[in-house]
Amino acid sequence: MRPLDAVGELEAVRRLYEHIWRTGENNPPVTADLLRAMTKAGSYVSGAFDDGELVGACFGFFSPPAREALHSHIAGVLAHVQGRNVGFALKLHQRAWAMLRGVGEICWTYDPLVRRNAYFNIAKLAADPAEYLANFYGPMDDDINRSDATDRVLVRWRLEAPEVKAACDGGPRTTDAGAARAAGASVALSASAAGGPVAGRADARTVIVGVPGDVEALRASDPACAAEWRAAVREVLGGLIADGARVRGFDRTGWYVLDRRETE
């Protein structure tokens, strides 16, 4: 793990992102010249290397000074090193880099339908979902996002919070959706036998919201069903967050667990 600022290294980051998101050379997620300008301005760009091969990269830029925050824009890891904690190492490096510069919070967005990303962000890193952003980026011309609306959840990673410190030391924030349900949580969204979304109840103090097992595969095999999930999660999860519900955690079996705000 190390910061990157040389033009050749930043060009390698561009190629890495093109490969991960399968955009092609005419529509890269970011250009080397932009990354070069960002590093010169003091923003964050890092790379993860395996025997000299760039296998992951992350970059971010600062929020307004009063926020003392960094917005992490893109982080990606090659498929053949997934499962080796490369993404986790990138975030630990980013956290350490930010804290040395007086930054107390890092924000980023992720697709709420992608189960592994929800677990990584909410459980493994202990970041807190703050906003649901409908079609945030608009149409995106890459093989991962091309057929779907770009709904995102914005998370805030409070770098010195006790749960974040524990997560970075290897103690993820665990959540048991089954136990929550046994304790009276209502199921606001689940999957039917055919794999589509089924709306339920969201009237209990604690609410659980399901997502599909592999939405990326579903987009390819059944785009209509994937679109149904997008609309359902936007309405249910987005609605709960907008009403002030707090996402307590994400069960890796595919459930958001939320606590609704008390009302008089």
Textual characterization of the structure:
Helices cover 34% and strands 27% of the residues. It has 264 residues and is an alpha+beta fold. The chain folds into two domains: 2-168, Gcn5-related N-acetyltransferase (GNAT) (Aminopeptidase, 3-Layer(aba) Sandwich); 177-259, no CATH class. Strands 1-2-3-4-5-7-6 form a seven-stranded mixed beta sheet, sandwiched between helices. A five-stranded mixed beta sheet has the order 9-8-10-12-11. Strand 8 (186-191) and strand 9 form a beta hairpin. It is globular. 33% of the residues are buried. The model has no long low-confidence stretch (mean pLDDT 94).
Which descriptors would you attach to this protein?
264 residues, alpha+beta, Aminopeptidase, 7-stranded mixed β-sheet, 5-stranded mixed β-sheet, 12 strands
Summarize the structure.
This protein is α+β, with helices and mostly antiparallel strands and 264 residues long. 34% of the residues lie in helices and 27% in strands. It has a seven-stranded mixed beta sheet with strand order 1-2-3-4-5-7-6, with helices on both faces. The protein has a five-stranded mixed beta sheet with strand order 9-8-10-12-11.
Topology:
Elements: E1 2-3, H1 7-21, H2 32-40, E2 44-50, E3 53-62, E4 69-77, H3 86-100, E5 105-110, H4 115-124, E6 128-133, E7 152-158, H5 162-168, H6 177-182, E8 186-191, E9 197-199, E10 206-210, H7 215-221, H8 223-242, E11 246-251, E12 255-259
Parallel strand pairs: 4-5, 8-10
Antiparallel strand pairs: 1-2, 2-3, 3-4, 5-7, 6-7, 8-9, 10-12, 11-12
Helix pairs in contact: 1-2, 7-8
Organism: Actinomadura nitritigenes
Protein name: GNAT family N-acetyltransferase
